[in-house]
Specification:
With 95 residues, the chain is mostly helical. The protein has 4 helices and no strands. The protein starts with 5 loop residues before the first helix and ends in a 19-residue tail after the last helix.
């Protein structure tokens, strides 16, 4: 896994604002959806992976790195990273 340079992310966070809903969706999917995915997407500042979670589609390190990215971009753009609204994607035509 490639480790991100958080100082560069902080410096360029304003240009990433338009990708916040997409990043929320990515985090949701990386967590396997459900309550954990929604928690990660809507509360990146408070997110943690409980030790009782047996299997995730991606490694915990990868998920936590994307959640940290979402948190930094949200906070830099003046959003409340403790209470973000999940984008409405209405099953994306799957059903």
């Amino acid at each position: 896994m490639h480790e991100l340079d958080w100082e560069i992310i902080k410096a360029d966070a304003k240009s990433w604002r338009k990708f916040i809903p997409l990043t929320q969706l990515i985090v949701f999917v990386m967590c396997g959806g459900g309550a954990i995915g929604r928690f990660a997407a809507e509360n990146p500042a408070d997110f943690y992976i409980d030790a009782r979670v047996p299997v995730l589609p991606y490694s915990k390190q990868e998920i936590l790195q994307v959640v940290m990215f979402l948190k930094i971009v949200a906070e830099t753009n003046g959003l409340d990273a403790h209470n973000m609204r999940m984008p409405d994607f209405h099953a994306m035509g799957v059903f």
